[in-house]
């Protein structure tokens, strides 16, 4: 598969699409796990967590943080199994819709090509942090959001090691 990827095989494009669908699948599954109605995910929705509405039996990785309970935000940021990342997103995007839209697009890998590989990849169960990976391209543009997210970097590096890729070192990637 690696050789086909480097030669621009259409199969690489299909793999990229599959990776994007895995992210969507993970986010939708976490939406269900958190008991968030799908109609609450529209563009101007506010997270119900601020109103105290969330699934108390959801896995610990998805339990809301104090900031999520306090700061009004769109529910898409509730769907990641990394509490510190969720808080970082809320702090960075507070009232900045353009930044939030750009970040959301970057996370799901919109406008990607096999050579850019920007976004998040989900290899396992959506609520399990060890199945998530951030790409090098994502870290180059958004690495500042990873502050304090050692669990996400560790998980990413485990997946990179499987592919014989160098580990991510945020300090070397950030602009």
From TrEMBL:
Organism: Lophiotrema nucula
PANTHER family in the cross-refs: BZIP DOMAIN-CONTAINING PROTEIN, CHROMOSOME 7, WHOLE GENOME SHOTGUN SEQUENCE
Protein's name according to its UniProt entry: Uncharacterized protein
UniProt xrefs under Pfam families: DUF3425
Source domain of life: Eukaryota
InterPro entries tied to this protein: DUF3425 (IPR021833)
């Amino acid at each position: 598969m690696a050789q086909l990827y480097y030669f621009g095989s259409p199969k690489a494009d299909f793999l990229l699409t599959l990776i994007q669908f895995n992210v969507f699948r993970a986010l939708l599954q976490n939406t269900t796990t958190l008991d968030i109605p799908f109609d609450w995910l529209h563009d101007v929705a506010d997270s119900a967590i601020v109103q105290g509405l969330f699934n108390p039996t959801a896995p610990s990785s998805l339990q809301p943080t104090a900031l999520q309970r306090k700061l009004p935000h769109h529910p898409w940021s509730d769907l990641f199994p990394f509490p510190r990342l969720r808080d970082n997103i809320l702090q960075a995007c507070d009232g900045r819709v353009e930044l939030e839209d750009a970040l959301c697009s970057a996370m799901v890998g919109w406008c990607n090509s096999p050579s850019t590989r920007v976004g998040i990849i989900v290899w396992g169960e959506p609520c399990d942090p060890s199945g998530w990976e951030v790409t090098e391209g994502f870290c180059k543009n958004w690495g500042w959001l990873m502050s304090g997210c050692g669990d996400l970097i560790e998980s990413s590096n485990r997946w990179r090691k499987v592919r014989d890729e160098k580990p991510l070192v945020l300090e070397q990637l950030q602009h």
